[in-house]
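@channel sequence for tomorrow's demo:
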Amino acid sequence: MTAASENIVEIIRAIEAFCRTFMIQINAVCAVIRYYHKVQQKGISSCLKPMRKSILITGGTGLIGGAIVNSLLEQNQPVKVLTRKPKVSASPLLEYFKWNPNAMEIDSNAFSGVKAIIHLAGAPVAQRWTDRAKASILNSRVQTTTLLRDAITSLPESDRPSSCISASAIGIYPTGSAWLNEKSEGARGFLADVVRAWEAGVAELNTLGLRTAHLRIGLVLSPNGGMLGKLLPVFKMGLGSAVGNGRQWQSWVHETDVQRAFEWALNEPDAAGAYNVVAPQPVSNQALSEAIAEACQRPFWAPRVPAFALQLAYGEMSSVVLSSQRVTSERITKAGFTFQFTNIDAALSDLI
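structure tokens (generated this afternoon):
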């Protein structure tokens, strides 16, 4: 091999060595970029957690509470849930903290970095009202509110949440056919007394510097629970019917609009006091029952269930089903909230 050829071979080898070194460096840089991107994507929600204050929710594992929790998490909003049985969360944005309202016990760490509270805790009303059930329905609302108040009182003023948005119910209103608004005279009876005590307890948080709002929720339509969840199997068999005389007004609301109303009240700095959360177009029990049957694509022929049969089956609680409450949601709509579902047929079509 000539000297010239040897020089060419050496040059080629040098170029190859340079290329190998250059590619190794390029691959290393690419690996670093890929790793950084992976860490960034994985850690973005956990990075947001300390930067944003949390929303503390009671009743966060229930029908409405679960929907609110999921919606807030989708918005990268850190959430803390008070529960009797805390568990490890799969989301870095969600934490569970233990409380026991019966023993007036609560984990004080639940309030660290909390900017607002959504208070939904309460035993179900749709059960036979024995003396024990009545005590549970009342205490699960009043005691939990007192426990929250005591915990907030112990915090320095600078560490207290700024607001508490609480569930309430249109059960505070009397039965009849007249339109009812937030200023209407309240009814007499067990359920109305529960609502008054519930709202009064939450209003006491005003003295601690919190903005408070009570959302008086109507008949929540959901296939996963509540009245509609119980009625669907019967209607899907073609056996559904109206109850009582069928003329009683039913102030209903789609489950999605309940979740949206809580988020609206949470983020609306001027929202305070009582708001009726019911669709703008209440319907009679007869019309509601016919609409459910149509949404299920089943005939509507069964005779109405007489009032005395409901009273025998459910006792005093039957008054919830038989009462007529024609409630307006004008106050909340004038304040800026817009209902997504205003027509009963469209609402049921979405749910069933």
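heads up for whoever presents: Residues 246 and 341 are 23 Å apart (CA to CA).
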